Amino acid sequence: MDGASSDPNAASFDCVTDDVFSRIASRYDVLCDLFSLGIHRIWKSRMARRIAAEPWDDMLDVAAGTGDIALRVIRNLGGATTRSCVVSDICPAMLEIAKRRAGPLAGALQFRVFDAHRLAEIASASVDLHSMSFGMKICDRKRAVAKAWRVLRPGGRFMCLEASEIPVRFIRRLYLAYMSFCMPVVGWVATGGDASAYHYLLSGVRAFPGARQFADEISAQGFVEVGYEQLSFGIVAIHTARKPR
Known about the structure:
It is globular and about 45 Å long. Helix 3 (40-52) packs across helix 4. Helix content is 47%, strand content 20%. The chain has helices at residues 8-24, 28-36, 40-52, 68-76, 92-102, 141-151, 169-190, 195-207, 211-220; strands at 58-62, 84-89, 110-113, 127-133, 152-163, 224-231, 236-242. By secondary structure, it is of the alpha/beta class. Helix 6 (141-151) links the parallel strand 4 (127-133) and strand 5.
């Protein structure tokens, strides 16, 4: 287990993250629907099916928000499972909503407040599958991927669903136009005028690298069998990799 970072900028980032998501926790799922026109449900279903198909006993879902991915995974497994699934997020308010949403499935999950940049509470080489969905764009990617590497067992699987750079130029222009003109208005209304919240949520989308570049970053950490599946014309991609045995 490693200790918390002494980087003051990292501590400040974590506080800002928690504060932003605490303010919008009750509206987060609505925001996802509005920002993606509901398509995020298709993306998350695909991610959950792929996770459920993997051979794992211990799964750690970081930056889990309101628990969408983990809940879909458990449902794909039929609800009753002997597998261990930890649902974690830096924001307690988000996790409280995840618990409520889980209902009778809550017994198949563990809910823990963890920081994806640290994971100091998780022993090294103790997890079979590490997943993150739509959290990497607001993380320090290098730190988050390094922590995934540390906690994964040899042979363990890394999976990340994240925004990507659309390869088709015309579609990319349309998408960027939507982001530039429609999303700020939708975000302002949905957050009750909390401009800082939606600007923070969208800040990482434009800057996030294309799928190939992010795959190269994952490879640079030492992962093997690195690949990605692009969805919806490349708006998002599911990245997969394995820690060498």
